[in-house]
Write a structure and sequence with these properties.
Keywords: Membrane, Transmembrane, Transmembrane helix. It comes from Gouania willdenowi (Blunt-snouted clingfish). InterPro entries: DnaJ_C4, DnaJ_domain, J_dom_sf. This is DnaJ homolog subfamily C member 4-like. This protein is mainly alpha-helical. The N and C termini lie far apart (about 115 Å).
Length: about 220
Amino acid sequence: IYSLKHGVIIFLLCHYRKAVNYYDLLGVKSDASLDEIKNAFFDKSKKLHPDSDPSNPTLHSQFVELNEAYRVLSKDPSRKAYDFKIHHPYSGSQSWEYTHDVSVHTQAQEHIRYWEQFRQSQSQEMTLEEQQRRSRRNFRLVAYCMVAMVLSVGAHFIFFRKLEEVHNNFMDEKDRAITEIYNEAKERARLNGFRKQTEILRQKHAEFLGKYKISNEGEDK
């Protein structure tokens, strides 16, 4: 009994699915314009979208049927084939499906051939334009690199010249200070004489030894 009921339910559902009229599903007349079909689809899709009521599992199947109805009725070849099926229901669904598939395939091939010619010509033009653009970009890149190298070399040259100048000035000042100290010491030695200069040196040596001895004693402590 359960299997019989289950089979009857499946049969009724399949019969209902086959008997669904796409115009009735969208809520428009059979002579409705494309804008009317589009507006009706947008209004229905907002109400039947599965996200509008996640707790309702039937919304998904209804939304799929709604999309299928809009897909068929929004294109002139498939709509004509569907209208032929409605007005000639005993001609069989296979003939409509075959006509629908053939029309869609033919239309797709025509679209491909139509746009292929533009795509090929555009790709050739874009290729030449791209090559010119790439050449200009590479030329600018090389020019920027050359300018950067020249500026870098110039900056290093100026930096090292300045560093050399500072070093030479420092060494000249140091030599001048040493020469001045030497000349002053030499002049004092000449004025003081040999004996007096010797006494001065002994006194400074004694002071140095005393200072050194005191510092050593402090470290030992």
